[in-house]
What does this fold into?
Amino acid sequence: MHRWLAIRYSLFFILYSLFISTYAQPPKGVFLTDTIEIGKPFQYSLSIRHRTSIDVLFPDTARHFAPFLVRDISIFSTKTDARGSLDSSVYTLVSFETSPTQTLKVPVFLLRTPTDCTLVFSNVDTIRLRERIQTMRPDTLRLSTNTTVVSLRQQMNYPLLMTILMGLCVLAGILFLFFGRTIRTRIRRYQLYRQYLDFQRAFTRLTRGIGPETAHEDAGRAVVIWKKYMEHLERKPYTSLTTREIVESVQDNRLADALKEIDGVIYGSVYSDQTQQSLRILNEVADTAYRRSSVRLEEVNQEVLI
It folds into this structure.
């Protein structure tokens, strides 16, 4: 039994290694500094070279960078040469951990087809914490006497405090038992609303004063914001999809012409009177997706209550 398990694990490891060596090199993750300080930002570089026939999804900044927090990300365009395609990003991180040494290893997803995904991890890189506070211990300890009477403050009634806290916990548990799902749904819908407002502010700021001189830059940033918002809202990799794949996923007849018009502005600097209308269509598609997600949450909650 143990022998067969060992053989199966060996075959799996060999096949996995052959796949990685055939389609991609292992991801390379490197801290761009040797030491860090608590609360101060620093940078981490992640890159992977792969065959041009596969797509790459970089790690989720909300889950895969613990114990670090991601403050910003710089995404670079894919570079392709005779050795394959190179995708890279630089993340601005912040740490509030007090460990002297901290490590990071992140996953990268290789997509050969929409239904075939392989997870590979980067190398483990280590960074050291720079200590600012140094304690100086004296060589000798001298005890001093003080006979002055010191008035003590009134002590806390800890039994009463614990009783109140336990009562609040029981009350919170009862409320959560009967209204927990409704409360979670309300919280989730509020989070969706806040994310929608943030998207609207950022998208409107870029598209409100767009003109022929800055159209290619502002339109490119607006499309990136739109793709990231749609990706977070519908859990689909919009940032790595082509225009045709996005149109097939959203199924909006207006979206195809709008994206083609904006691609012409971004890559060809071809600004026209239809540019503003195309950007408004993207905003309307995002608005429809937000309202659909909000209604879906409410419907699921109603079905569970029934």
User: Anything to note?
Assistant: The longest helix spans residues 158-207. Residues 11-19 have pLDDT under 50 and may be disordered. The chain is about 50% helix and 20% strand. The helical segments are 2-23, 158-207, 215-234, 243-250, 253-268, 274-305.
